[in-house]
Amino acid sequence: xxxxxxxxxxxxxxxxxxxxxxxxxxxxxxxxxxxxxxxxxxxxxxxxxxxxxxxxxxxxxxxxxxxxxxxxxxxxxxxxxxxxxxxxxxxxxxxxxxxxxxxxxxxxxxxxxxxxxxxxxxxxxxxxxxxxxxxxxxxxxxxxxxxxxxxxxxxxxxxxxxxxxxxxxxxxxxxxxxxxxxxxxxxxxxxxxxxxxxxxxxxxxxxxxxxxxxxxxxxxxxxxxxxxxxxxxxxxxxxxxxxxxxxxxxxxxxxxxxxxxxxxxxxxxxxxxxxxxxxxxxxxxxxxxxxxxxxxxxxxxxxxxxxxxxxxxxxxxxxxxxxxxxxxxxxxxxxxxxxxxxxxxxxxxxxxxxxxxxxxxxxxxxxxxxxxxxxxxxxxxxxxxxxxxxxxxxxxxxxxxxxxxxxxxxxxxxxxxxxxxxxx
Length: 424
Hints:
By secondary structure, this protein is an alpha/beta fold. It has helices at about 20-45, 55-65, 75-80, 85-100, 115-130, 145-165, 175-185, 250-255, 260-265, 305-320, 320-330, 335, 345-365, 385-390, 395-410; strands spanning about 190-200, 225-230, 235-240, 270-275, 275-280, 285, 295. The strands form 2 sheets. It has a 5-stranded mixed β-sheet with strand order 3-2-1-6-7, with helices on both faces. Strands 4-5 form a two-stranded antiparallel ribbon. The longest helix is centred in the N-terminal third of the chain and has 27 residues, at about 20-45. It is elongated, with a radius of gyration of 29 Å. It starts with 19 loop residues before the first helix and ends in a 14-residue tail after the last helix. Mean pLDDT is about 85; it is low at about 1-15.
């Protein structure tokens, strides 16, 4: 027998006994089944079977479930499954359809209607929200795995181009003024721009040649890092994802464009005053691994003075903003909380930035944004400033600012920060 399976050998002849007839018939039966399976495998490998998918029926089901006048599911159910309000979702569908013709409805090569923009965006949002494989929508949306994967890639690329300039923008002078005021009112820390930290995403399909660049000793699998600055409303003002090399916060900071605007002279001029001292730039709250730069404020590891203990409590409470933001991101967008299936860093960046943009859009749509309106600053010609880097890494300014913040908090009557007598 000419078999594709080398472990199958011709059926041997058995001696005649009482069970010879039944044994021979059973062996012949299974041998015929194997031959038929081989023929089917050969036929299917030479020509792929066409699967008829009811695209129109999938669209009608989607409309009846969520978008008709009397939909099957309520607004709360829609928000739970799509992670956003229905009005924001329909706005995104309209914008991406107008921005990229791939999302527009047309005809395929067989002159049949393609998927509607509603189906394509739904497939992409579902993959971002759940992190499930692309073939999950085959039964509900009647969409193949390949088309679902294309929906995700085109959607992420379009969202980054269409909304990145507004929802992943650097803080303008108008934004910084509002951030100063909001953080001083909530955290009692004047001049605070936000909290800076990093998080990891597991990269399941990391190529073998790149594993050494994305491994850490305390992680079992390759990871991609994200550096982010978060304000009190959980708005993400800075994001830097996917740097190669030894993965820790310091090495990511050395490659980050966080202070590029200060270096080339395009950063807005927004000084602030604390304890009767004027400072040129705002600062970020960080943990102990970051260097003692003038733009970083770290807590005291072992405070002794009561005012230092109050400052440590307030610093740790305010720095939870960035930890909360990472938790919200990974719980809302399941694709970030599950091992990444993309095989290139570029696609991972596109997915991560899309989730960040949608996160900020939801905050604005819910009315929780500190600076919901994007007011641009007048354009400034980039000019490299040699003194900016020296000012950024000035340790004397770091300690003076930290001392002024301790004195400022000590002068305020904040009962929730008062130190117990047994702690002194």
